[in-house]
Design brief:
Length: 212
Amino acid sequence: MYRFFKRTFDIIISLLGLIILSPVMLITAIAIKIESRGPVIFKQERLGKDGKVFRIYKFRSMCVGAEHTGSGVYSEKTDARVTKIGKIIRATSIDELPQLVNILKGDMSLIGPRPPLTYHPWPIEEYTEEQRHMFDVRPGVTGWAQVNGRKEVEWNKRIELNVWYTRHYTMWLDIKIFFMTIFKVFTGADNENTTETAAKAQAEKQEALANK
């Protein structure tokens, strides 16, 4: 029953969120524009439900073109590409608020597996049959992997947690994830990529291919 109403709940929650948080979003947008040149909203292609590509929205927290320089898709605590405002909105997860629009559009859900990049950790064609089950549901702003280690968890484990969620999600599990996420945001837990996690992505890809 919940699976049928989940989309309705997402629409209601995202609408309320956009209304209530609009002052925060407006101030954030102004601060980003004042500090550095470039667009306020950062758009990036991600893999969504059934592996379909969509554009995710975030408040820009790095200098323009940062993804194509330096450390690539990963940013660490001392990454010079992250702006001063960017550090603040990342620490508080305010940078994720524009994804409320993604929810309204139907690209995402409030709770679900985080949508990976189209090419990282590997292209959709290189996911194993088991791993592809993480795309059985709409991706989320937060999810089971995020409250169980988030960026500290290696990719194979993250995907395993995501697949588990797609097979077991209920209203009560989503509520649990929601409040665990709030706790993570306020404590700042697991909110930084580590060099070790980033470096292991390629090795995990080879392991996944070998297990196909």
